[in-house]
Design goal:
Strand order of the largest sheet: 3-2-1-4-5-6-7
Mean pLDDT: 96
CATH architecture: 3-Layer(aba) Sandwich
CATH class: Alpha Beta
Bound molecules: NADP nicotinamide-adenine-dinucleotide phosphate
Structural class: alpha/beta
Shape: globular
Number of domains: 1
CATH superfamily: NAD(P)-binding Rossmann-like Domain
Largest sheet: 7 strands, parallel
Strand content: 15-25%
Low-confidence stretches: none
Radius of gyration: 17 Å
Order of helices and strands: EHEEHEHEHEHE
Number of strands: 7
């Protein structure tokens, strides 16, 4: 069987954790990148301590990856943060932290991941959000960061066209993960998708024909709003 390498950022929790488990089951060797350790214990899992906001940390991560492989078949840029507050109540450092984690972080992953792309093979999947296409109340920092992320992806896709790499962007609505914990408001989990629903879409993207990319897959719970 052909060995396939994947990088997943934000592997310690939520969707990144589920994606990592899924890819391991599919036979990938997975590099997981987050600031905290995961409890995943698998011979094909390599846990890396990475802060995506730091260019140096991301460079060190790729140095480690380079000791194992020259190329990545799949890059899943998923790490992200989400906090809620009105524009008037949002502190500048909270706003900036969203931009650093959700926009600058994926930029570092792309910029230094370029050396690990395999011509006509690598699939780069970003976990963006519906909030990258539509503004929502009390999430200005998050929306700004995800709108910015989508712009970054679009530009990079154009610049790297000659490489033949694929760029797919998932823009889900609310999914029941730990990201919703520790917020001041309580949200109805029954009106959110489950991580398993997400994995069904992810599976379709990963197994799609090699000549296909998904520039925008928007999906949400049937009770969710998208007007
Ligand atoms: N859940 C939803 O409703 C939903 C909907 C749409 C889009 N999304 C997007 O899906 C992605 C994953 O969200 P989730 O729901 O799975 O959230 P989560 O459970 O809170 O997980 C977030 C992950 O990102 C990692 N992370 C955060 N800051 C990081 C940093 N500076 N460096 C490295 N890793 C960092 C965290 O690991 P450490 O803290 O260990 O570093 C964690 O593994 C995010 O981009 C989010 O915006 C989620």
């Amino acid at each position: 069987m052909r060995i396939q390498y994947a990088l997943v950022t934000g592997s310690s929790s939520g969707l990144g954790y589920e994606i990592t488990q899924y890819l391991l089951e599919e036979g990938f060797i997975v590099f997981g990148a987050s600031r905290s350790e995961t409890d995943i214990d698998h011979p094909k899992f390599i846990d890396l301590d990475v802060d995506v906001t730091s260019e140096e940390s991301v460079q060190q991560m790729y140095d480690e990856i380079g000791k194992e492989t020259y190329g990545l078949h799949l890059i899943v840029s998923n790490a992200g943060i989400f906090e809620m507050s009105s524009v008037l109540e949002t502190e500048s450092d909270v706003f900036l932290n969203h931009l650093k984690t959700n926009t600058l972080g994926p930029f570092h992953i792309l910029k230094h991941g370029h050396d690990f792309t395999i011509e006509n093979v690598t699939h780069i999947v970003h976990i963006s959000s519906i909030a990258g296409k539509k503004g929502f109340e009390n999430v200005s920092a998050y929306c700004a960061s995800k709108f910015g992320l989508n712009g970054l992806i679009e530009s990079c896709r154009e610049e790297w066209k000659s490489l033949g790499v694929r760029f797919s962007t998932l823009m889900p609505g609310a999914i029941d993960t730990p990201i919703w914990e520790n917020l001041s408001d309580d949200f109805e989990r029954s009106k959110m998708l489950d991580p398993e629903d997400f994995i069904q879409v992810f599976d379709m993207v990963v197994k799609s024909p090699p000549n296909m990319q998904f520039s925008d897959i928007t999906f949400l719970h049937k009770s969710g709003k998208l007007e």
